[in-house]
Every structure is written in structure tokens, then in C-alpha cells.
Design goal:
201 residues, 78% helix, mainly alpha, homotetramer
């Protein structure tokens, strides 16, 4: 009982941080100035990179929240090192809006490469966070509920390790070919979402 | 038990997002500069479009939160597709402050039409979100508690479908007659609030 | 059980809104520009009105949160009209940072009067909110737990009514004598805090 | 039961405030303007003080949250004076981003001294907050669960008192030797984190 209230408090704090990170880019949508309908339409349309950034950032943080939720429903205890790992993961989450806004701003520009590299690097960092969190749930204290069997543990381990490898490759590819790196990134997303929707927990 | 903790975490995350979206426009209320009482009164009065936007946005997001709350009290399980639908709905909620601020800024201006169209379109998007969320509670997994009978389900279905149709009509009307579109929108609100207050759950 | 989860969700949403409102004025503390220690000290000291505003706003919203908490611990059911009243109260809470910042900015200026009037008016609005919330807990549906007896109900009723009357007088006084109005306001705070600390619930 | 719901509401509100404070400095990461990859890289690298500030502020607020969490898991009741003490502590938490950003901005500048003094003073204030909170859990009402024995109470008391003394010394040292003060501060952090990781609760 005490243990489960410990766990809910970590979840509540994490949910608060996720909720703020996911809404942060809304602040970029500023009401434009215009004197007639035509100019106002043009000004609204010029907001598209902000809207793309908001959508991308919202989508990816939502997926991160779902993964976080997924890991936490497997445990019923907490440990000090898990709290640090969770803290690091949350750090990688709150910075997501910045590289996403950078990507949306520079995607169609000559200066695309740094934006894509930073974007891919932030994905790598986030995947490092999920790997550390998952590790901290397995040791030094094993926090996973007994009902979760060895093979579902292994499947999740393989999935977080695999994600880290592919995102690291994408980040390296980004240095030479930004577009190719983005294709790898978004393929992974489509794959993950379609896999998720098939599962029915 | 585990299922109900799943559900409370989705609610907690959603509540965080609603709480941020509902307070966002407060940031627009900036302390004005003035040297004497008369000028300060004038500067404070010039903030009225921001105050109208804040009130409208607060009111509509509060109503959305109540509808969300209403749907969630009918279920006791969660599903992956419901989590995606809920994510989409939250996205349509966090963007509400932007079209509302746009509307408040341009309501009395020549450039009114784009602002009203965008405002009505955001209402349509939000109603699409509520329809998707409600669908995802009925299938592929039926999440509704057995105590809710067929006719209360049907009533809610009819209400979300009806809302979507009327808001879509309002958005189309907005292209030719912005004022008429706003009248339709606000009539729906008054209707909904008066109906809500009569119910005693 | 279902009823109490309803109640906790309203509390969670309200807590989120309170948490955002209470931290909002931190955004006004911007890192100043300076080239040597002496100038930097001067620039830091020039931030004092922002710091005063932050402290005042934090203090008063904390007190509001405690009053809200106090009312909610007396009920174990929810009603639709209580949800509307709670929504209105939250609205009066999120605007608090604005009049407080206005007050801190203009307290020592010639243009003091409008700032004090707006500040006192926002207190009145907030007290109207607490009165509506408390009314909505007594009727149309009586939501208070049976363990709370008639005299504690009456005491709370008298206290919210009394607060509204005194704050309204302060707001009217503010039009002619801003300083006198502030003295009334802060006396009430000191009274309330000293009374609270004597209680031991 | 009622008591424990009182406690969870204070935790939920505190978690919301912590979550906002911890993400606040993300708002400083603004997308820079550039026309070619090289300039964009330079502009991104110029964001380093903001990134250092964000990391420091995130790290220290995370540690504060863990300490807060640690104290609250020892109690199962609430008192009015504990709520005031908790409010004061939260106030010292939300201002952390400001001195941290100040430190990051002026660390390599001539004007370092005021920034370090303010940073150390904010640590002192925060430690005062933790001392007041812990005191308020011991008296006037003793809120600690009976399962926590005299020696773990004493250990925590000694730890919060010791922290306050060392941080106060660091703040005084900062007036003459900013660098020495920072070394004291960060040594305490490293000590605390390494001690925490050894514990396995």
C-alpha cells in the first residue's frame, strides 16, 4: 500500500512534466497583425512551421508518455536509482520541443543539416533515457510485478535496445544525409504506432 | 484494480494538459505602462480583447473538460486505441487558446472573416476528437461499465454526432457570414449549459 | 467509490490550475544584462517589484488553495452546478497574478489608484467565487458529509459571506483612498493566517 | 482514509508546482535565426548558457522533489502549520530557475560575484524551507508514522540542519570567493547523490 502510493507519486510528477512539455509549443502560436481578410489569411498560413512543430512535438511526447505508462504499469515498487533514471528521462522529454521547433523552422532551408542532427541527437538522448529507466527497473532492485513473465521482459528489453541502435544510426546518417535520417526516424514511428494499435491490452 | 489505476493515470495526464491549456491566455495579460491614473485606466481598458479571449477560452475548455470527465466516468478499462484518441482530443484542446485569441482580436475589425473561420474550424476539430474518443470507448474493445444501459450510450452517441454536424455547418456558414456562424456556435453553448444544469447526477 | 473518484478528479484538475497560477509570475524574473558586479547588483535590485508581486501572488493563491482544500474535504459527492461554480472560482484564481503585478508596479507611483482598485476588485471576484462554490455544495444537492454538523456549516457560511462584505467595502474605499483599502486587505490576511495557525485539524 | 486523501492532495498540488518549476527554463531555448549550416551551428552553440542553466535547475529541483517525497512518505497526517511550511518551501523551489539562469549567464563574466551570491542565497532559502517543513512535521502535531523510529527521525533532523549550516557558509564565502562557494555547493550535491544511490529503500 505504501509502496503503491510511492509509485503513484512518481507517476503524478512525471505526468505533470509530460503535460507541460507536450503543450509548450502552443506558446509559439502568436496572433498575427493584419488589416484585411486577405493579409490575415496569409499571416495565418505563415504560422505553418509552428503548427508542424507543435504537431510533431505533441505526437512524439504522446508516444513517450505511452511508453512511460507502459513501463510503469509493469512495476509495483520504486527504488532510488529508478527515481534518478526517471528524472533523466523526463529531462530528455522536456527538451523535445526545442529540436522539433528547430527542425520545423529549417526543414525547407539551406541550413537544414544542423537542425536534423540536433533533432536526431535528441531522439538518441531520449532513447538512452528509456534504456536507463528500464535497466533501473530490473536492477539493483527488481521492481517488476511477478505476473510479468521472462519473455515479456525480454521483449521489452529487446525493443528499447533496438530503438536506441536505430536512432543512433539515424543520428549518424543525419550528418551526411539529413533527409535519409528523417525517413528512418519517421518509419520507426509509423512502425511503432501500427504495432501498438494491433495490440489490445 | 490495476485497470482502474491505468485509467486514473490517463485522467491525471489529461487533467494536467487541460489545466495548462485553460490558463494559457493569462500570459497575454501584461502590465501596461502609464504615468498617471487616467492613462493607466485607459491602458487597462485596452486589454479588453485579451480578457474576452481569456474568458471565452477558459469557458470553452472548462466545458470540454466536463465532457471529457463525463465520458471517462462511464468506463473502467483502457485500450491502446482509446489512448491515441484521447491524445488527439487533447491536441485539439491545447490549440483552442490560439483561435479564441484570434477571434477576440479581429471580431470588431474588417479582417473578421479568417478569424471566425479558424475559430469554427477548431471547434469542428475538437468535435472530431470527441467523436473519435467516444468511438474508441465502444470498439474495438468495449470499455463502458455494464451499469450504463443501451439508451444512455445511444443518447451520448447521438449528442456527439449531432454536435459535430452543427459545428461543421457553422464552420461552412462562417465562410460567407461570420456573424451568423458565431450565433450558431454560442446558441449551442447556451443550450448545452442550460441542459447540463438541469441534469442532477 | 465512484463518487469519490469523481471528486478526486475535480480536485486534481483544480490543483493543476492552482499550481500553474501560483508559479506564473516567476516568468517575470528575467536575467538582467550587466558588465560589472556593481551594475549587476543594481539591476538585480531593480527586480524588486517583480519579486514583491511574485511573493504576494504566491501567498494569496496559496491561501485560496487552502480554502479550496478546506471546502472540498467537507464533501464526498459532486454535482453539475458545483462543477460550474468550481470552474468560475478557478477563473478568478488564474487572473490573480495580473492585478498583483499591477499593484506591485504602481504602488509607489502617482498612478496608484487604478492598480489598487483593480487589485481589490479581483479580491471581490474571488470571494464571489468562493461564495458560489460553497452555495453549490449546499444546494440544489446537499454534498456535505453527514459528519459535519450544522454549526460548522454555519460558521463556514458566515466566514465566506463576511469575507465578501469586507472585500467589497475595501474595493469601494480604494476608489477614494487606495492606501486605506490596502490596509483593510492585509489586515484580513493577517487575521486569517493567525486564526488558521491556531486551529489544529 | 480521509487523512490520507488530505495528504495526497497536498502531494498532488506540490507535484504540480515542482513539475512547472522544473520545466520553466525550457522557455529560454529559442530557435535561433541563420541562413547557412555553419551559422546555424554557431547559433546553436551560443545557447550553451541556457542549456547549462536548464540542466542545473532541472537537477537541483529534481533533488528537491526527491527530498520532499522522502519527507512526505514518513507522515500519514496533515496539519495547518505543515501546509504553510510546505507552501513556503514551494515558494523557494519556484524561484530556483532565476538564480540558476543568472549563474549560468555570469559564470564566465567579470560580473560573477552577484550571480554566485544570489545563487547561494537561494540555496540557503530552500534549506530554510526544508527545515521549516521538517519542523512542522514534528510539532505542534507529530505527523510521522509510528513505524519510523527515533534514530531515523534524528538522522533526518541532523541532515536538514547540517545542510542549512553548510549552505549558509557557502553563501557567506560567496561574497569574497565566488568560485570557492560553488565548489562547496557542488561537493554537497555529489556527496548527496552518491549517498542516495547507496541507499536502497
Amino acid at each position: 500500500m505504501s509502496e503503491s502510493s510511492e509509485k503513484s507519486r512518481i507517476e503524478a510528477f512525471s505526468d505533470g512534466v509530460f503535460a507541460i512539455a507536450i503543450t509548450l509549443l502552443v506558446l509559439e502560436l502568436k496572433v498575427p497583425q493584419a488589416d484585411d481578410p486577405k493579409t490575415l489569411w496569409q499571416e495565418i498560413l505563415r504560422l505553418w512551421p509552428s503548427l508542424v512543430a507543435l504537431t510533431l512535438s505533441f505526437g512524439s511526447i504522446l508516444v513517450m508518455w505511452m511508453n512511460h505508462h507502459n513501463m510503469f504499469r509493469m512495476i509495483d515498487k520504486v527504488s532510488r536509482s529508478m527515481m534518478f533514471a526517471n528524472g533523466f528521462l523526463l529531462f530528455t522529454v522536456i527538451i523535445i520541443p526545442f529540436p522539433t521547433a528547430l527542425l520545423a523552422e529549417y526543414l525547407r532551408s539551406e541550413a537544414r543539416q544542423p537542425a536534423v542532427v540536433v533533432f536526431c541527437a535528441s531522439s538518441v538522448l531520449n532513447n538512452v533515457g528509456f534504456n536507463l529507466l528500464w535497466n533501473s527497473m530490473l536492477k539493483p532492485v527488481y521492481l517488476v510485478k511477478p505476473e510479468f513473465k521472462r519473455d515479456s521482459i525480454l521483449r521489452l528489453t529487446r525493443s528499447v535496445r533496438g530503438g536506441l541502435i536505430v536512432y543512433t544510426i539515424a543520428a549518424l546518417v543525419a550528418i551526411w544525409s539529413p533527409i535519409m535520417a528523417l525517413i528512418i526516424n519517421f518509419s520507426l514511428w509509423v512502425l511503432w504506432i501500427s504495432m501498438s494499435l494491433r495490440e489490445r491490452f
